[in-house]
Design brief:
Elements (H helix, E strand, L loop, with lengths): L5 E6 L1 H10 L2 E5 L7 H23 L5 H14 L9 E7 L8 H7 L5 E7 H12 L5 E6 L1 E3 L6 H7 L7 H9 L2 E3 L7 E7 L6 E4 L4 E7 L10 E4 L8 E7 L2 E6 L4 E2 L4 E10 L1 H13 L10 E11 L4 E11 L4 E6 L6 E2 L5 H9 L4
Parallel strand pairs: 6-7
Antiparallel strand pairs: 1-4, 2-3, 2-10, 3-8, 4-11, 5-8, 9-10, 12-13, 13-15, 14-15, 15-16, 16-17, 17-18, 17-19
Helix pairs in contact: 2-3, 2-7, 6-7
Length: 360
């Protein structure tokens, strides 16, 4: 695989200070990312493929020793997370060439008060990884994420299925699960530094609602200041335009975030300045599902990355972020398998469609 010359990482002020002061990158356990279903996405692809193959053989009356193996693999997948073989840690990077203008990256991975984009030399990162592989029990690598489109085969999954009876099947399953994602995240152009194996030392940091395990990738050295690009929402011309009100609150869309993926598909960030009623309902729902409510007493607004099908008049939420009144992130959630909903005429989403879609 040929790496691009530079890769970029978007982070907060706290994040950039931690990296610069320690000369280390924190690689997060993949099961503790904002959306832990990223890892299970590939497991479900493999499970579905195995089920179809087994049903095909049963329908034509052909039974082989592999059919028993299918059942064994299905049972293992059900309890996969209890196995040490699921140890996988990642550090996310982007190949977005528009690092100065990619509002979606700033909005998704930096706090509202401002953030930083770190430019990494890919060759230097690769050298660090080679060095670490000589010292580590596990394996480090840089991988480009594969974005799966529904019903389209992925070669790495097809190849894995053919190895179902081999000893390395589970090891390879964990490896490919670390870089296969749903195509709704394709705009991120993500690369990942991935560690596979049981690490020598695991560290822990506080998250919004849980303690998050991570490992450190050392030997990160920075050149002069042009490696780091600071930004603020003001500098990004972050324009929120009011377009309506409901019992949920006041609705705004970000005019500078609109991306026309095709003549049919558009993406946009929109915000709801939550009403007291909606704040109370939101807190009640989170409590119902056991979500920790620490720091939520100052809940103020939510923003969503929304994808519109301008022809079929449907929409789906790709990302959801909750903020408090000071702009602190309370929850940041990616939808790996977003639900497509029909847009109701006259609704707020219908108004948004007419403002965002081209030729409307």
């Amino acid at each position: 695989m040929t790496l691009p010359k530079h890769l970029y990482h978007y982070t907060s002020q706290k994040g950039i200070l931690g990296i610069l002061e320690s000369n280390k990158l924190w690689m997060t356990n993949i099961l503790y990312l904002n959306d832990s279903s990223e890892f299970t996405y590939t497991l479900e692809l493999v499970r579905s493929k195995l089920k179809k193959l087994k049903e095909q053989k049963q329908n034509i009356g052909i039974l082989t020793p592999n059919d028993v193996k299918y059942e064994q693999v299905e049972r293992v997948l059900d309890g996969f997370f209890n196995d040490k073989r699921t140890e996988s840690y990642v550090f996310s990077l982007s190949n977005s060439k528009k690092k100065d203008d990619d509002l979606n990256q700033w909005r998704g991975y930096c706090p509202r008060e401002g953030g930083f984009c770190i430019e990494f030399d890919s060759g230097r990162l690769f050298s660090i990884i080679e060095k670490m592989n000589k010292m580590s029990k596990g394996k480090y690598e840089i991988s480009e994420c594969i974005y799966h489109h529904k019903d389209e085969p992925i070669e790495s999954v097809e190849s894995l299925i053919r190895k179902i009876t081999e000893a390395d099947f589970y090891k390879e399953l964990v490896e490919i699960s670390s870089y296969i994602k749903d195509n709704s995240f394709e705009d991120e152009k993500e690369y990942r530094i991935i560690y596979q194996g049981v690490p020598n030392e695991i560290n822990f940091r506080g998250g919004i609602s849980m303690i998050i395990p991570y490992i450190e990738l050392p030997h990160i050295q920075f050149s002069p200041v042009d490696d780091v690009l600071p930004i603020t929402t003001k500098e990004k011309n972050d324009r929120w335009i009011y377009y309506g009100k409901t019992m949920s609150g006041d609705f705004y869309y970000n005019n500078s975030s609109i991306v026309n993926v095709s003549p049919q598909i558009s993406k946009v960030w929109f915000k709801i300045k939550l009403s007291k009623l909606e704040k109370d309902n939101t807190l009640q729902q989170f409590r119902k599902f056991g979500q920790s409510m620490d720091y939520w007493e100052k809940l103020d607004n939510q923003i969503m990355l929304y994808e519109l099908d301008c022809v079929n008049k449907t929409g789906k939420t790709l990302k959801l972020v909750y903020y408090d009144i000071k702009g602190k992130t309370l929850l940041n959630h990616d939808y790996s398998d977003p639900t497509t909903d029909q847009i109701i005429p006259g609704s707020m989403n219908d108004i948004l469609l007419n403002k965002v879609c081209p030729n409307k």
